[in-house]
Design goal:
The structure holds two protein chains of two kinds. By secondary structure, chain A is α/β, with parallel strands linked by helices. In chain A, 40% of the residues lie in helices and 26% in strands. Chain A is built from four helices and six strands, in the order E-E-H-E-E-H-E-H-E-H. In chain A, strand 5, helix 3 and strand 6 form a beta-alpha-beta unit. The longest helix of chain A is centred in the middle third of the chain and has 18 residues. Chain B is α+β, with helices and mostly antiparallel strands. Helices cover 37% and strands 27% of the residues of chain B. A five-stranded antiparallel β-sheet of chain B has the order 1-2-3-5-4. In chain B, helix 2 packs antiparallel against helix 3 and helix 3 runs antiparallel to helix 4. The chains are: A alpha/beta, B alpha+beta. At the A-B interface, helix 2 and helix 3 of A face helix 2, helix 3 and helix 4 of B.
Chain lengths: 121, 146
Amino acid sequence: MGSFYISEDVTRDGVAVLAAGGEIDYEASPQLRKSIAGHIKAGVGRLLLDLSSATFIDSTAIGVLVSSANALRESHDGSLAIVCPEENENVHRILEIAGLRGFIPVGHTRQEALSVLVPGG
Amino acid sequence: MQRSAEIEADVTIGVARELRLPARPSQLRVARDYAREVATAFGLDTQARYAFVYAVNEAVTNAIRHGAPDEQGLISLRVVVADGRLTLSVSDSGTFLVPPRDDAAIPERGRGFQMMASLVDEVHLSIESGGTTVSLSTARLGARTD
């Protein structure tokens, strides 16, 4: 089974892109929270979380996403979007069961998700 | 860690098996691997197996976060197969903490239990003076109603 990792990047438009892979559980979710919080603190208002390589995302990690989306909205009037390809059925199912649909936009590609965060971009 | 062959034999016979783990986040992957082996031996299909493992992970996470391990710092996972149903029970020595009600339309916390219920056929919660047990039960494909 894949172990958890995070890789970080920032686009030309100033969107922070975090790719989180492997199994995102209670051991891993604090690291995810910390990475996202770091970007928010640094003034980033738009954040993309790429879950293409995630095999598993538990409720504590879902909680991190919800609180992060709220924090972005409150502090920078910003937003969070998720990337999850169609083929990653497991993670799609989890996001659906967790009730995130309609709250955090999910794109099948980075391009799709970015277009939500950077309208016209 | 039991070998797959051992688990398979026990699951078929229906003998209860127990795994005791340190109540630490690093042990979650051990719990998931165990749940995966048990589910495979029982014969759950890919999707049902993933759902079962996910639910077990939630229950074990809850025990680690909110429960109290026994005097040796352990929580226990017990497997029982009976009447075509697979049941995995996660026990700790603490009192189940019902998360404070979060009335936001999208709650930030407390969705683990709700997700467990969406993923397996039955979830039983037992709170006694000695501790809390969350039992997750699922039947094989064919006996399921979805």
